Amino acid sequence: MEQVREAGFAGAESIERLYELLHATGMGPGWNKPEPSLWPLPKRTFVPAHWQYSLSRPAMDAAGRFVGTELAERRNLILFNPAAGDRYATARTMVAAYQMVKANETARSHRHSPNALRLVVDTRPGAYTVVEGKKIPMVPGDVLLTPNWCWHGHSNESDGNAYWIDFLDAPLVHLLGPMFFEPFPGGMERTEEVDESSPMRFPFAAVRARLDSMTPPGSKQVRLGPPYLDSMALFVTRLESGSTVVTERATDNSIFAVIEGGGRSIVEETEFEWRRGDVFVVPSWHKHTFRAAQTSYVLRVSDEPVMEKFNWRRQE
Ligand code: GTQ
Ligand code: FE2
Description:
The protein is α+β, with helices and mostly antiparallel strands. It is built from 6 helices and 21 strands. Fe (ii) ion binds next to strand 4.
């Protein structure tokens, strides 16, 4: 760094020289930046995108031929946003991933500061996530929570591969910095205790029953909880066959996963057709129109609690 004294600034003969001296002293002119630091409305940096289970499932099976869970911490496929420069986050604050654990295989226990949850897609009886020493059954359509710093591992004691979708706030932790991770001593946390009615489990059968009993007909939504994750709100919506549901631009990011049914979504200029097991992302400040072709149940994972906390929750 160039040695600059007071006299250097006093003697600067041009604005260009002033910029040089400023740069050399670790300062930048706030009035002359290539990009402004404030702008009137949220930028649409992340882009709408869609991932099909019909592709990711054979991809996981292929990974299963090469990658064992004794080597990999998790056999997961990261759904990174196609926005320029991104190789990890699905939306600004959250990541979604498909994960598979083979029959009679475990994925060892660990804990970490990011919050996580999973939506079960295809399992047979005997597939469990072990959370804090208890086996929680993984039944298709169920949502399982593993809040920040809870021990968790996966144990597939069934006779078929188990497939699900993970959601974590890890990109938010990357942005803010407080990442911590610890492996469970000795690997898998072993237990014989099965907890069917764990507070960390939202069985789809119960969620569906709540949605189906709601009146009037139209779009129906429930928020999962308590308990609630601090950073992500979870909603399950029942879309009626043939219905259209419009959501205006909002500051929160949403990742959707299809529990059951089929339809299309139009996210600003991007359109995709989704079905069971698919994932799609509606990033911040994108208008979203649902068109359900069949009665559908869709999970939405939103960073709305973060926006709410800081008074940044807005809709156009
Ligand atoms: O299952 O614990 O997709 O820790 C990424 C990180 C899943 C998990 C992921 C994880 C997990
Ligand atoms: Fe984990």
